[in-house]
Amino acid sequence: MKKISIITPCFNEEETCESFYLTIKDLFDSKLSKYEREHIFCDNSSTDNTVKILRMIADSDNSVKIIINSRNYGIFKNTFNGVKSASGDAILLFMPVDMQDPPELIVDFVKYWESGYKVVYGIRQDRDEFFLMKNLRFFFYKIISKISYVDFPVNVGDFQLVDKVVQQALIKTSEVEPFLRMMTFDVGFSRIGVPYKWRKRKSGLSKNNFTQLIDQGFIGLITFSSALMRLSLIIGLIISTLSFIYVAVIFILYLTGNLNIGRGIPTIIASIFLFGGIQLFFIGILGEYILKIYNIAKNKPIVIESERINF
pLDDT at position 212, please? Predict the structure, then answer.
């Protein structure tokens, strides 16, 4: 019997974790009954009753495994640590308890996987959320899809089913800030997309605030694109060229006696602020790349776990 692993990151999800577990269990008991289930809950050091509820579930169901982190490491590291721990023939990389990604779609994912595809990914064709947020997300994915060196479709998230061979390829990477949705495209293999509607959260509050979304976006840009560094080089060349032309013009005007030295002070001040701001901006971009290299060099574990249950 083939085994399918489900990775579920959670943090303070006491309101939804049990009903979510039952939804996944019922799905495997009915439509996926010929597959063995391995459901890994990765708890990011919850402060409510989430862990207590998960312990009760794991006591009565050996298919449920729990990883409890020593602190909150963020959703990317938490999820990837669960992916590394999965033992299934196929692994669903990301199935959060909010069920905004529809669990019933797993059945279709498995069918495509059985037909030979190594990566089956969900495409969020529509989103049940505010107009502004929906378009901001689309705009970001559009940008990263265009400037990335990875062939990454627009509106693809971490809701993906991958074969064991893909999981092993992902584990071999040395990403300190794992961006799973693009890592699966980076390692290659045959793949297919399945469109669906991303739904509203039924209960509880999302733990992903706007600041975290921006941070996650930068991780994707820094990891899978050199566009920001190339942009800094191009703008630097343009500004240097314009500055050279400006100096040449000033010098010619000075030699011909057509330059009033007393003028231009506001222009100089404005130029100093403009070029200084541009320099600081691109130094910051360079710092992001250096910080990533530094974190890789430290060779620290993705997360530090405080406990494992049912492994």
Answer: 55
